[in-house]
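Now for one protein, fold included:
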Amino acid sequence: MLAKVLLILLGTSIILPSRSEGPHVESESAPSARDDVYGPQPQAPEEKLLSEETKSTMRLGNLPAATHILNSILNNYDHKLRPGIGERPTVVTVELSVNTLGPISIMDMEYTIDITFCQTWYDERLRYNGSFESFVLNGNMVSQLWIPDTVFRNSKRTQEHVITMPNQMVRIHKDGKVLYTIRMTIDAGCLLYMLKFPMDSHSCPLSFSSFSYPESEMIYKWENFKLEIDERNTWKLFQFDFTGVTNTTETMSTPAGDFTVMTLYFNVSRRFGFVAFQNYVPSSVTTVLSWVSFWIKRDSAPARTSLGITSVLTMTTLGTFSRKNFPRVSYITALDFYIAICFVFCFCALMEFAVLNFLTYNRTNPRASPKLRHPQIRARSCTPPRAHVHQHPEAFVCQIEDSEESDEEEGPSCPAQQSLSLDTTQRPGGCCKWCKKYFCMVPSCEGSIWQKGHLFIHIYRLDNYSRVIFPVTFFFFNVLYWLVCLNL
């Protein structure tokens, strides 16, 4: 009995201290002690659990509503049929933005363009009632909606961007308005008319229309057409400058029906500097260098011949090089015409020496070049003993003497003697009759031509004439060429 009493007293002593310590622990964790700490206040476990349940309930409240609306409008939706079928044509509003334009391939006559293509139409089957103004769906949902079958008619290759997801977007408004946006890169054909190359300008089209719906079922129209293109998205044009954009809308008749075709024209003009330094400058310099042979003595046949042949071959190489990266068109361009004229100048400079050499050295007595001495026309006599004048009832005849002096020291040439008989045999190396009317062929010249005031050319001064005729002719050709090309 005593043992039981002691056990009861011992248990009572153990329980009483533990109850007295309880209020002390609560006092340490009292709100007054937490107010001194800066920062977010810890929430009670019950309050935290309540807030999470409330937020989850709110999220679950919007998500089921959106899912319910989307499922309700797509439940009985047939994406194979266009809106308003059998009642009215579907009007598709088009808007386009250019990400990058270029480059333009001259050889393939095509250009590359990266665009974001936007199409808008109304579909009454997609109307809904709810608090959501619109739904934004990614590219995976596009296959479940009716989409216009727009095709780019002059495209050669079309790439749709799929990294990291297909670059497509559909936005459905509560009134049934649908916005479909897609990003794509198109290689489109561009017919380049190169007649004025390299001063040419081009308009590269981008045409699109419906592939299967004629004008009676689908109509395209622009949405406040305004296309902004600047240096930020035209840096790939390289040799061209962007000058503007225009648009047209037309109806194209085909065996399948009349289709509405919309076309954008990107206008570009070629930058002239690159072609000028690559073709015009070398051609002009080579032509001028071919004239150096006019200042080389005619006795230096190897030097003049090698210079002339080198100039002709250089012009041939430049003409071939200018066509290397050029389409094989069937007409001549402005650059081809310029190079061809330069080639003619170089070839004529070479032929000038050939004619001069032939007429000078192809004679029976090539020991020295005959020299002409101009007589005193008023006195009707030549100074003896260099020349003797004979009076003839039909012609004024002057005898010619050969001289070893330089051409630079000879005076004005006199009219040469005329043959007294038409049957007189010409010297070897003489020219035909029509040449003798204008060229002084020493020692047989027609004095009567000089007396009649016709043009008289001394063949031994052909280099002197060429030094003036070639540069002046080439200068006037350049003036006329650039006036015509720049004002066309």
Remarks:
- The longest strand covers residues 90-105.
- The CA atoms of residues 198 and 402 lie 55 Å apart.
